[in-house]
Amino acid sequence: MADHYSFSVVLEPQEGGGFTVLVPALPEVVTEGDTEQEALANAEEAIRAILAYRRDQGMTIPADAHPEIRRIIIAA
After folding, report:
1. CB-based contacts of 34: which residues, under 8 Å, 6+ apart?
2. What's the whole-number mean pLDDT along residues 16-21?
3. Structure confidence at residue 67 (pLDDT)
4. Domains, the chain, with CATH or none
């Protein structure tokens, strides 16, 4: 039976179109896609690959991170 994991992701729209996806609990996961659906599907695939790598290397699989987004306004 497979283990189930849940990870928060950060979905960032890009100026030229498409999306970048980051996974705060797994910093090695950074991916993108032309649509939100494609970006999230690519993130799922990348997460599976990192989990498999971590298992194979005897590394721990971290608990989910709960990112909080804040806005900082700076005069420069």
Report:
1. 17, 18
2. 97
3. 85
4. 1-76 (3.30.160.250)
